[in-house]
Fold each of these.
Amino acid sequence: MIAEILEKVDRDKELTPAEMKSLLEISNPSELQALYDCAYRVKAKYVGKVAYFRGIIECSNICVKDCYYCGIRKSNTNVQRFQMDEEEIVREAIWAFENEYGSAVIQSGERKDAAYINMIERVLKRVKKETHEKLGITLSLGEQTEETYRRWREAGAHRYLLRIETTNPELYKKLHPEDHDFETRKQCLALLKKTGYQVGTGVMMGLPGQTMDDLVNDILFMKELDIDMVGMGPYIPHRDTPMGAAIPPYTEEQKQAVLTLGLKMIAVTRIVLKDVNIAAATALQALEHAGREMGLKCGANVIMPNVTETEFRPNYVLYDNKPCLDENSSMCRGCLTRRIQDIGETIGFNQWGDSKHYAKRVRNP
Ligand code: 5AD
Ligand code: FES
């Protein structure tokens, strides 16, 4: 049965939702390996065996949102809040550029005040200028107005990540306070497309109450929306959050189960969406030392080495057991370079590594 579905993939036939679900439900180790291998063939065929680095700058943990799962939610008083100044963000972006990362990602908690919007705009202009327009910039700064998205786009950002978190509206409600609105988030994704970004979205896997059907619908949502990039990762409890406090820390067995679910989701997403960019989320490495390489081996083609100054890292912890908190940017670069070479892939140094899907989408709208 599984073999038949995978054969269908190899013949480039579309899968039905029921077939996607069967793949996500695999538990037998040899079938699991066959799924990962199949997804890897799809990846090799559509996007190549190249891992693109995006240096991630976590520039502030100040957040107006209060998501029940996230370690930097507004109500968590156990975090020391920080905001990098303009110079610091520019410096880290230039570090990424000089270290041959084709792109950087600027991520922070959500803020919509004018001072912040202006500051990001200035940073974008400076980074573009100082890197002679050569560094690609992705933003991951939450829900904003059309005007803000447009200004940041014009200042030089060309990709944007905004996870939908889950496409089940009922589950979305359980994960967020009343004033966090699923429809608004969906509209933001539409605005990002409208304002000309390469758009990325994604979900968390293994959320309490989430079903396999939800995950199938998540993949169908991304397909329907014709998104260019995927960033998704396993949910990992954070002890200082309402959701995390209600769940005892994962046992080794649970870690492996959530990791496997995350990898299966990457594999099936690669099989269904084919030519998009898919990130191997850092959260995979919180569950297993080699988690991110495993992500690449089952279909992901993007990795985000942390380029945040070490002193800030302990304050940007969204989930327990986040890796690389004591390391610095050079250490992460060396470490990930070795790990990727060990799995026989090349690294797309000095390349933007844009989503092939995006190129096709703008050629044939
Ligand atoms: N576990 C895993 N991922 C998380 N995120 C936030 N909190 C957690 C958690 N506890 C993810 C969300 C968000 C991204 C920046 O981090 O999906 O979009
Ligand atoms: Fe940061 Fe290995 S990736 S230390």
Amino acid sequence: MDKQTQPTILFFDSGVGGFSVYKETKQLLPNCHYLYCFDNEYFPYSEKTEEEIIQRTLSICHKINQDFPLDIIVIACNTASTVVLPVLREYFSIPIVGTVPAIKPAAEISETKHIGLLATKGTVKRAYVSDLIKNYASYCIVEKIGSTKLVEIAEQKLHGKSTDLITLKQELFAWQSIMDLDTIVLGCTHFPLIKEEIAQCLPQVKYFMDSGKAIALRVKNLLSNAKVQSKISEKNLIFCTQKFNYDSQFENTINLWGFEELNILTVNE
Ligand code: DGL
């Protein structure tokens, strides 16, 4: 890919969780033009209604696409992906990549065939997820935990706050005594950011599965077939939907991931 045909890719999440997906893609495709937007005004999405999530995601993607014509949109959020993909695919003509829980690879890799889905409260009850389990893990026992607190803990970690291990343990309590639970699906993009802490609470777990690498490969594959909008090299941009005071740790994190200052996106619904 030369610099003249640098594709513009938007990563969207409610918070910093989408970084866990963006990071994998950036590593694989370092020369794309990346935009990252997080909807901190509506964070967390975990318990929001499906209608609210569809409305927010559509308005935000529409607004960004108007200002920065996009080649691919990655919905780097399981909670949103399990409801918005059909709507976005109807609205936009560019490829829309969703992030959904890695149930199939988890079922395949598990030796005990006893797996756990750790996701938001919204994701664990979606029909999309029940269908994934029915289609790809019907031969496994699948435990589910839906948690908003874990999302908040992960978000806080990237804002420089120490991880609340007591709350983390309480949220995972139901799985601590399931000794043959050997595989966990990190079905929320925030959770790879606290994987080490989760592993400390559940020492019996051997495999933690997330969708970051699969998404990076999917983006690469789409780009090899796509007609990319020709443009000169531009700098990567990060947006949030509400002004907030961030500390130097957060600033360092976004700098490390290739972004400069944080921009505010005004969303008209
Ligand atoms: N990171 C998101 C996900 O993958 C959403 C977390 C939230 O806002 O509740 O589900």
Amino acid sequence: MEVTKAVIPAAGFGTRFLPVTKAQPKEMMPVLDKPTIQYVVEEAVVAGIDDILIITGRGKQAIERHFDKSYELEEELEADGKLDRLDRVQDIADLADIHYVRQKEREGLGDAVQYARKHVGDEPFALLLGDTIIENETPCTESLVAAAEEHDSSVLSLERVPWEDVPSYGVADTEEVDPNANSFPVNDFVEKPPRDEAPSNLAITGRYVLKPEIFELLEATEKGVGGELQLTDAIRKLDTVRGVELDGDRYDIGNIPSWLEANVEMALKHDDGDINAAVEAFLEGRDE
Ligand code: G1P
């Protein structure tokens, strides 16, 4: 099997980040100089995928504008001789073939994914949540695609989280995980379990490669936790699902501490020496 398409759901409200998300999508929250969703699109592109469907909704037009060509801005930058900035702006519009579909009502992640059915057709696809940045030496989606192609299976990225956080996630039920295995089979999943009923603390991180059977399974799935159609409830019905344990950094941008952490840690690793030196000096100053 070959994974050539990616789907990025970006339709949810950013309620935890109000009021900043009142008039702008949470996926456009900047981390340093780029909006969150640009990191997500770039992760798919690095995995060799340049056909991307973004699932948007009301109030999300800024996302389309961001990935579109910007004639006036480009002309102005060119006229002013700001060619490095011009390159950066042009690169965004050339990143990938980006398509959009709007989710009409917010009925959960499972419902959002169903909007991808026509575009994806009968092919496996990568799914990347638009409000989550994952930084890893080998980009997360690239590892998932490799495991999915090797085992001809759906594959999810999983991460050990503190037990008290388990009720915020979909959680995997697995045999003991071999630390040397690139991927491992998962028997079952449960969406947002109470801590004392969770089969493990291996949480779904927001990166998936799914086989197209998921669409039929979603159709046959009832609404679940929170009265929403839960993707996890359909994933557990797939014939085989494998997990890949994440060893990179994951930032959930819908939540303020995680967003701040992303900015600080990514500034410290930024390839612009002035930025990391300034942030490092600021942090050192605060320690004293
Ligand atoms: C969604 C998924 C959940 C996953 C989480 C990762 O939940 O339903 O399985 O663990 O994303 O961020 P949400 O955060 O949308 O409530």
Amino acid sequence: MSTALLATLRSIVGPTHVITEGDMTAWEQDWRRRVRGKALAVVRPASTPEVAAVVKACAAAGTAIVPQGGNTGLALGSTPDASGTQIVLSLARMNAVRNVDTANLTMTVEAGCILQNLQEVARKAGLLFPLSLAAEGSCTIGGNLGTNAGGTQVVRYGNTRDLCLGLEVVTAQGEVWSGLQGLRKDNTGYDLRDLFIGSEGTLGVITAACMKLYPQPAATLTAWAAVPTMEQAAQLLGMAHQQLGAGLTGFEVMGQLALSLVGKHLPQLRVPFLGHKDAAWCVLLENSDSESEDHARSRFEALLQAALEVGCVTDAVVAENLTQAHQLWHIRESIPLAQAEEGLNIKHDISIPISRIPAFVAHADALLQSRIPGVRVVNFGHLGDGNLHYNVQAPTDCDAAAFLRDHEAQVNHIVYEAVAEFGGSFSAEHGIGQLKADALQRYQSPVALAMMRAIKNALDPQGILNPGRVLIP
Ligand code: FAD
């Protein structure tokens, strides 16, 4: 059966684009190297009709398909299982920009376009595509849509969902649905676009998207502020919203432990206020404005001055130029790498209503310490969006692998229960994939799960699209 299917797939995409041997690590292993799967084949179509024909052939053979973009996802959604029966459908060759419409402020792009390339396409057209995240050099817009990725500009521009006006999708039956008109208003029935965004390849294969563009800001200013407590970080966020309005484009928080790991493992980076006693937290703020740099700078500095006066900031530096701004962002984006250098750790990607974050952090920190003395919480994230990467590292005197083996389930339970108690979400950005499918069963309501299953069964009754991801069959 699989021999006949492989022959059909070769006839659709060409023999060199059906890969069954050689080093398949890039497609079979997840980004964090947690698991290694085994694919029946990696299939690399070059067009939407080819994707449709591949899906039709797989549906006829009853063969499962794992859609894949840059394979940078963090929830084990884009790698095949170990059975050797699943097809990895890589969209990487579908990387054309079909159209940039500067009057409509949109671009229509194929799913395999690398995010960084799309930022560049927008920049060349004199516009801004604001989606930005540390994996932008290798993740694709199809994967960003598949996971509804967030990133560093959500506080102003929203998640990938908010940036998308339309999709082209190949259904589980191999039909093509085209919804690429680029309309800002369209109330003709159910919103199919929003159904596919964030569905992690379980409802359809996204082949193209119409994405929103924005005017380039005239001035972008970046500051790094020392803040004594999480309450004061939240207070600073409130002040920034009040005084900067829509100019606030980034608000990241970093705990001293997270920054001390950057200082330890990446000593070439100069981390402001590292180890300062009144800087338990540092905040990275970004303001992007259509007004002149001088005007924007005086408003930005007035905010920081007001924050110093009320004591929610104890010290601050404002980047003098773009190079310094990039250096500050680079420190923030280096935290995951520094944490990986420190050893295996348990990652969480949670969101809590911003007003409840200080109480949540105090509660969860205390609970973890009481149950696992010496455990280290590496807490940082997109405070402006209420999203924390509340990661847990082994005590210093403990072997990291042994810690994970003995405590991962316990730590997840403590954190997820606390998140639920504070009205939050255990998966703010990275999605469910295989990694959190159990947690979804536990923390999503029965009514919501029943609706999700009904949607999955209606769109993919054979269950061939990314089985075992999001919903456990
Ligand atoms: P993949 O990893 O290939 O796939 C991800 C999921 O989408 C899978 O379920 C896959 O089946 C599905 N999928 C892929 N392509 C398609 C398609 N064409 N149609 C349907 N389904 C598809 N995420 C954030 O939200 N915010 C961050 O700030 C952030 N930072 C990151 C930093 C680093 C260093 C890394 C490694 C990851 C980060 N992520 C972040 C995770 C993020 O989800 C991915 O980087 C990105 O959105 C996934 O894109 P991808 O092309 O790599 O998708």
